[in-house]
Structure prediction request, 153 residues.
Amino acid sequence: MNPESPQNLTRLKWVWINFIAWFAGFACTMSLMFPYEALGIGNQSAIGLGMGAGVGFVQGRFLKRYQFSAKTWFWASFIGLSIPYLLYDVGAFLINRYHLAINTTPELILPFATAIGSLLAGWIQYDRVLQKISTRRWPNSWDSYRASLTQSS
Prediction:
């Protein structure tokens, strides 16, 4: 398979691959939830581990066609999305173990863990993959619009 130019990677392709990747992440999460529940260990970390693995794998495999490092992308997603959820489970365990009066309900914490995980994954992806290829330009909607204006005049 010939690698495609990064210029051929459109926002629409990226949105669709992310849509598929989140379903893969959901499937990975569900496959981890059952053993976690059976073992009685913190099950919130399964969300980060499953979503990081599923999303990172699908995105990495897709980006491999565009000459990006699939392995590095996978690990950036996996680590970035897993850390906040693992920290949540460790923190909840310690709070429960030492009977601290702190509310650790997932409904309050998980939106923050998701936001932190997304930012962390994006930062690692940029630092380890995208910054190294800064000579390549990602497609920009504004550039396409500007080009269409100059062609029409």
